[in-house]
Amino acid sequence: MWGRKPSRFSPCGYPRSPVVAEHKVEIIREARKGGTVAHVVFDNTRRLNVVNPPALADLIKAFEELSRDEQVRVVVFSGAGGKAFIGGADIKHMAALKTADEGRAFITHIHQLCQAIRDCPVPVIARLEGYTLGAGLEVAAACDIRIATESAAFGMPEVRVGIPSVIEAALLPRLIGWGRTSWLLMAAENIGARKAEAWGFLEEVAKTSEITAAVDRCVEAILDGTPKAIRAQKALMRRWEELPLSDAIQAGIDSFAQSVTTGEHTEKMTAFINRKRG
């Protein structure tokens, strides 16, 4: 559909954008009863929130900062403007890459952002509005939970401009299966939010007017968990991804054993027992 609108979109599926390259990464800490909710807002709206090396560096810095903040319970990551989460990597920057070393350095930078998100010790919720394309989809895949508006669109158009989809695109077969990953990466056609949800990429789809409420429900559900247990759960799930089943089970046993030493369970379980008695 994108190729049929040449005045607004490039043939590869990336939206065309002005030359002006300005961005801002904002961290907003919101105090709630259950703890601090951090909002990371990426603003490069003049270019549909595409990422280039300076933007990537600032986003990585933001997630590294939040990873060190023990008061943060959950992070909500969004793109400013409502037209895109991340509209892809800066195609003008990529077009100027000439050597293998230049290509490796650029794509590694995108991977480092994805890794910073995955290394963040608390859940990261991707709030997805408008377009999530290429590098943006890889970044979204690196998040723990994805919630989108029903008008959102998703795509991996890299092969249309002569490069494969790489780095955290490797997460896609685990999320949506090999066949659907093949379609997304090789047919390189955009899909809508409802299809992305049916495929398993999205956890929830909401009307545009209800996206804030949908994200908020997820945030509150996470805040209902205890801080150390939530962090332990995310760390364990990361280990599960890389371990054989028997080792993953043993890692879970070890995590459970460690969790009973924190004391969090005693207070919560005692309160539950007392409510039942009452």
Keywords:
alpha/beta, 18% strand, 46% helix, 2 domains, 11 helices, 278 residues, disordered N terminus, 2-enoyl-CoA Hydratase, Chain A, domain 1, Lyase 2-enoyl-coa Hydratase, Chain  A, domain 2, four-stranded mixed beta sheet, six-stranded mixed beta sheet
Structure, explained:
There is one protein chain. With 278 residues, the chain is an alpha/beta fold. The protein folds into two domains: 222 residues, 2-enoyl-CoA Hydratase, Chain A, domain 1, CATH 3.90.226; 52 residues, Lyase 2-enoyl-coa Hydratase, Chain  A, domain 2. The protein is built from eleven helices and ten strands. The protein has a six-stranded mixed sheet, sandwiched between helices. Strands 4-6-8-9 form a four-stranded mixed sheet. α1 runs parallel beside α3 and α9 packs antiparallel against α10. The N and C termini lie far apart (60 Å). The relative contact order is 0.11.
